[in-house]
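Entry 12.
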Amino acid sequence: QYFMQLHFLFTQVIYTIIHLHYILSKYMQSKEPCFFPFAYKKKLYSECTTDGTSGWKLWCSLTANYNTDHKWRYCEPSETPSCIFPFIYHGKSHYSCTKVGSLNSPLCATTANYDKSPQWKYCVTKGLTKLHL
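Predicted 3D structure (tokens):
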């Protein structure tokens, strides 16, 4: 009898914790777009990352520098910035990745006009790009 009551209470506590986590994660989830690239702990990220977490949930910064702003949100599974072609960079249209101003690594804009909305990523096929700052 005692074991059954204890088991029931334990089950209720676990259920409550899981439910509370779900509610809080929905409440805390921002609808603001991710900002790419963003700085986090001396690295630059062009995609969502699990760095700084237990490794199970992707996240992104909502500003260019998470280290100073501490604004973030979880990423949706399908969320990754895509190159936009053509894009305007320093007043010129680019139809493919460019190395102009990028320390010899090809990059692209993730907005149609980098000059007005400076969001970009390195051109890589998969994984996230990290640079030491």
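Annotation: The CA atoms of residues 4 and 53 lie 36 Å apart. The chain has two helices and nine strands.
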